[in-house]
Design goal:
Blueprint lengths: L5 H31 L21 H8 L20 H4 L18 H7 L1 H4 L16 H13 L4 H13 L3 H8 L12 H4 L12 H9 L9 H10 L6 E3 L5 E3 L8 H13 L8 E2 L6 E2 L6 H6 L8 H5 L2 E3 L5 E3 L10 H4 L9 H41 L6 H23 L8 H28 L4 H17 L22
Antiparallel strand pairs: 1-2, 3-4, 5-6
The structure holds heme C (4 copies).
One heme C (HEC) binds next to helix 2, helix 9, helix 11 and strand 6.
GO molecular function: heme binding; metal ion binding; nitrite reductase (cytochrome, ammonia-forming) activity
Subcellular location: Cell envelope
EC number: 1.7.2.2
Amino acid sequence: MKKMGSANKKSILLIVFSFLLMLALVGCANSQAQEEEPMNTGLDPNEWNNFAFKDLFPEHWESYMKNMENEKEVLPKNDPSIEPMLPIVWNGFGFAVEYNLTRGHTYAFEDQMNVRRITENPNAVSACMSCKTTVFPAMLEEFGPERAYALNYHEEAMPWLEEFAGEDKGRMADGFGNVAEWGHASIGCSTCHDPVTMDLRVSLPHTTDAFERLGFDLENATQHDMRSIVCAQCHVEYYFDPLNDLQTTFPWGYGLTFEDQWEYSEYQASREGGFQGEYVSTISNTPILKAQHPEYELWSYGPHQTVSCADCHMPYQRVDGKKKISSHRWGSPMLTLEESCRTCHGDKSPTYLETRVKDIQERHKEQLLRAQEIGASAHYYVNRMIVRQREGLAISDEAIQEVQALVREGQWFWDMPAAENSYGFHNPDGAMASFTRSIDRSQQAILVATRALMAVGEDIDELERQIEITKQNVINESVNHEKHTHAINEWFPNVRDN
Ligand code: HEC
Ligand code: HEC
Ligand code: HEC
Ligand code: HEC
């Protein structure tokens, strides 16, 4: 074979190179122009109505509307096939009455208005709305942070909202299609985008405050950071701080791990008037911290922490043959495995990836149920201690308090990874460490209680039998929101003070 002269080789390379460069430049022209010239939608900087974006971004709108289709059946979470002990471990709190699996962002506001935790709680506050509606920033504007979170949900917040945003419900009827009753104001475009420039933004100021407490100024966030931080506005643990006008607050003062958040929450509880927990258990008279949905935190110390939420949950998808947009249907990445996972894991088969995810989730569910089962028993051991003490037997306050503290800790370390919605995928080790600590603390609680009870002659086998029957009665009740009524009975009365 004749060797090609080196000059010749160079010029061919040069031609190929220039051609590639040209392709690249043509390809980039569009996106560069977009970057240099900030977008101006012409919308009001305070626009909150999702419909206002519909005609400007028809492909995104179409993708967003897919949130109306449920990916899975929205079962109550205390269904025996999911988490049977919830009516016990949450007894005394609304979550024991009704708590459902998630569905699309477009339904978030409507689902909240209709859930029994809200409809049957006359004292619900507007802070509940802070992660459900695009109108919340307007409420902040109207009432200021001192009042906006603490309004009565039914008496103050809803009437104001009806007045401010209810009117626009009419616009749906004429030609806007069905976007759930309050879909025009449910989590939407202005939650994550500046309505004028469409830059990603944080629209909920308590999120900015939380990052500040962590020592991170959002001004310094990169675009890549923002692809997760927009989700951190809601997919996090939070509480309504009584020392700060009930404002939505993330317990991030010491860091993001579940262990850090526990330490910080215990510090808050130790302060005069500080947050003790969402409720006091009717079974164990223990103040309990109810976990919300700490996806951002668990992910932040897991194996995919360098991969953004949007990378997996909002993958680029082709919409009209050639154009690609970020999917705005937030759901399971397992349904978009090619675009969500194989962009990085192209060397692994889809079946391998699916199996890996299932394995992680199965192991997670096993430990979740074990921790929940033992935690539920621990509540009943405290109950028996309190009952015996009230009967005049020699059980000290200190012994009861020691066991209550263990129950509280055990429940936190079960609830955080259980409330996190990925079933451990976001951070298999972090979740497992949490369950291990939960099981350890609940077992410790049972051990300490057993000693105290045996010292006053309690028949522990009989106690165990009663606990088993009670658990079974909860499971067997078919009316979902009645289940919690069986958690309290003649063996285990309500012992809550007040
Ligand atoms: C303003 C608050 C808010 C923001 C911001 C937010 N979410 Fe959500 N998300 C929710 C709520 C509330 C639900 C549950 C809705 C329901 O069940 O009615 C939810 C549900 C989900 C679900 C489950 C959907 C289903 O069909 O079950 C996924 C996945 C999700 N969000 C991912 C994300 C990602 C990724 C981001 C960031 C790009 C994000 N969310 C930003 C509040 C938010
Ligand atoms: C939960 C947060 C969230 C909500 C709600 C949301 N977006 Fe986005 N949007 C994103 C993220 C994240 C990106 C990717 C941005 C990036 O990486 O530059 C994006 C990208 C975009 C882009 C840029 C092009 C693209 O596809 O990447 C447009 C336009 C857009 N969104 C429009 C909308 C519209 C219209 C709505 C309301 C119907 C909406 N978005 C609601 C988070 C959100
Ligand atoms: C590496 C990919 C990946 C990243 C990064 C990621 N997730 Fe996920 N996420 C998943 C997978 C996989 C599941 C499990 C889906 C299933 O079980 O079908 C999941 C589940 C979820 C769910 C529950 C969905 C449902 O149907 O109820 C939510 C909510 C969620 N993720 C939010 C987030 C948020 C917020 C972030 C960023 C802090 C994030 N995810 C980062 C892959 C990812
Ligand atoms: C942006 C790149 C990226 C994306 C997208 C991504 N991953 Fe990963 N994945 C990684 C990195 C990096 C690691 C860590 C590798 C390590 O620790 O050696 C990892 C690790 C894993 C692991 C653990 C390794 C193993 O085989 O046990 C699994 C499982 C996994 N990814 C599954 C997924 C799934 C499922 C998705 C989509 C929902 C996904 N990944 C999306 C980059 C990515």
